[in-house]
Input
Amino acid sequence: MSEVSVDQIRNKVRKISVDQIRDTVATLCWEACYNLPEDIVEGFHKARESEQSPLGRSIIDQLIENAQLAATEDRPYCHDTGLTVVFAEVGQDVYIDGGNFEEAIHEGIRKGYKEGYLRNSIVGDPLLRKNTNDNTPGVIHTKLVAGDQIKLTVLPKGGGSENMSAMKFLLPGEGVEGVKKFVLDTIIAAGGRACPPIVVGVGIGGSFDKVTEIAKKAILRDIGQYHPEPHIAQLEKELLEEINKTGIGPQGLGGTNTALWTCVETYGCHITALPVAVNIQCHAARKKSCII
Output
């Protein structure tokens, strides 16, 4: 069998340059911060219709107006333009040409936050607390998938809601009721500090690191989309109902719409463990994707 050269392999795969990755990430950064997703805006309108608190309705009206102004005037929806979280699905038939993949993403964040006039919110050392002044480093989740494309999703994650997120190892015997209690306890502890109405991402299973990753990924799911497994979809419905019964309401000032949606993702786990993570997303539930 003849040896296959590196050049022959490269000729059989699709080349995507680091410059294209950089520029795509840059555009996604400011587009995500300027334009709330349609499902979130629709969620505002539905919450407005069902909200029983006059003050709560007034707050939601302001959120709707703010989203309209941000989109039409090309301005950030929120001054906290977040820690830049990037989900990358990289096709196994792609060759990254011209440099390092992760560095291209970081360069894209630098470019996007500068050109989009977005606030730099990242410190390089968590203890020394010196701002990097370019919003890097971002947090990158990379998954190898079939195909010759790259899907990039930018999730600007605000500090308030992220600070209110939590993770816990339950005993397996605590089961679904233990999961529900932990989620509700987390939401109640967050109160208005997470800037409701919120989107709640719940991860169940996996390991210490995996459960928080899938909780983060859960908040990318559009409002109205339930988990394909019936028992998980039922859990999502029950959690949403119970969260909205807390009365925290829009901006924590009371009302019937504390959460717009609740999404649950699961993963296999060890027989001795039942890890649960709750990742809270504020009403500035920004996300933007592109396929290269």
About this structure: The chain has a mean pLDDT of 96. The CA atoms of residues 57 and 219 lie 24 Å apart. The chain has nine helices and ten strands.
